[in-house]
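Reopening this ticket.

The earlier resolution said the output was attached, but the attachment link was broken on my side. Pasting everything inline this time so it's all in one place.
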Amino acid sequence: MDMDKIATGMWVDSSEGPGRVLAVDKRDEMVLVEGLHEEQWAVPASTVNQDPQLHPGCDKYY
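Inline output:
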């Protein structure tokens, strides 16, 4: 995903699973993501995808 489109607080799907963006490191093109169970991981921005149908606490798509 383009670094300019990634924002803190947005819900994304990453290579490690779905989660909320905690921080964006534009210099290293990395994103810190917090998963649904409060686990955290850093992933390359290229592996992050915004999913407008991803809703926290809900397993259904609209």
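Reporter confirms the inline version is readable. The two ends are 22 Å apart (CA to CA). The beta strands are 11-14, 17-25, 30-35, 40-44, 49-50.
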